[in-house]
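Supplementary Methods S3. Complex input for the 5-O-phosphono-beta-D-ribofuranosylamine-bound model.
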Amino acid sequence: MRHRPGSHKGAGKTLVILISGRGSNMRALLESGLPCRVAAVISNRADAPGLAVAERHGIATQVVPHRDFPDRASFDAALAAAVDAHRPDIVALAGFMRILTPRFVEQFQGRLINIHPSLLPAYGGLDTHARALRDGVKIHGCTVHFVTGDLDHGPIIIQAAVPVLQNDTPATLAARVLHEEHRIYPQAVRWLYDDILSLDETGRVRWKHVEQAGFALVAPGLE
Ligand code: GRF
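Predicted complex, serialized as structure tokens:
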């Protein structure tokens, strides 16, 4: 039987986090006091520094090395099995740097979310901060969205906007955005945990109890 989001309602929900690197968003999730049980942190890289951080938090870690598999489909099948073994209600990609196959996305549809360092749909893909600076945009930010087959796109749950300052470098802008990532990712997971929102059958975010989800935009002023 296919596991559905919310099926653990009232009994607590289980979160699995996928990482590839530093894991600062994972850490923000672990340290934000979320009521979820974090069943595992899974990485496609054994050298991901975030794994040690997870272990320090007493979270089980697992590595599914993509290089051990001949192709994307077989890696994704192994990854899906590793994730599914925990029967998660929420699967959070936190700096997970592999493109997932439609099959994986379909299996976890509605409970698979990602954080991306731009105000989507602008600047999908890599090097978002350098590209934003090159274009001279005045507002940049980050987005938490449901994952669909469309890379770095998908129904938006929450965004945070930050100003782009005159002397910004990709590094300074990245730091300002990352600060907001660490605020909005736990918020998005909390909303999912509380069943405040879901992915509806038309592929849009459906908010429960609220007419206008104005609070899904975080816009701090100039610091
Ligand atoms: C973050 O900027 C995230 O938005 C992007 O990759 C980066 C990962 O950073 N997807 P970390 O591993 O969470 O520190």
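Residues 1-10 have pLDDT under 50 and may be disordered. The longest strand covers residues 139-146.
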